[in-house]
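Lab notebook, bench 4. Still working through the backlog of constructs that have no structural model yet. Next entry is a single chain of 145 residues. Request: give me the structure tokens for it.
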Amino acid sequence: MTICNYGPPSPPKLTAEELLERFGPRIEAKLKEIAAGIPACTPAEDVCLETGGEEYEWYLTAPSFYVRIEIAEAATYGEEGGYNFTMMIVGEGGKVYGQLTPYNYTKRVWTEDMEELEERWSGWFAPVTADEILSLVKEEVRHDS
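Model written out:
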């Protein structure tokens, strides 16, 4: 007896290179937009750094903190299931002032669905402003004092 699967074919697996091509320019533009609203803030010289495996990170630095946006791959974290974005605001000494990772610590954290990644970018990351980041940093610094 032969069992046949007549369902739709599985979509091809996404690669980090495809995500880099699609989202890299938007990530760079977002960081430049944020940098323009933060005094004495500059994008890093090496805007895109491949960090190993299939992950990419972009940075901008300000006088007392930096902002990092990453395209993360599940395998780097010992899991299966695709990719996600992370934005971190990190202060002096490595203190994390804020982190934005859609669906972190849930089964939905990783996806290989390009539409889902588009929704995550446009709904979670594109709206972030320099004013929001500065407000978060000021609040954290105030609490540290």
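Notes after review: The chain has one domain: 16-144. The chain has a mean pLDDT of 83. Flag for follow-up if needed.
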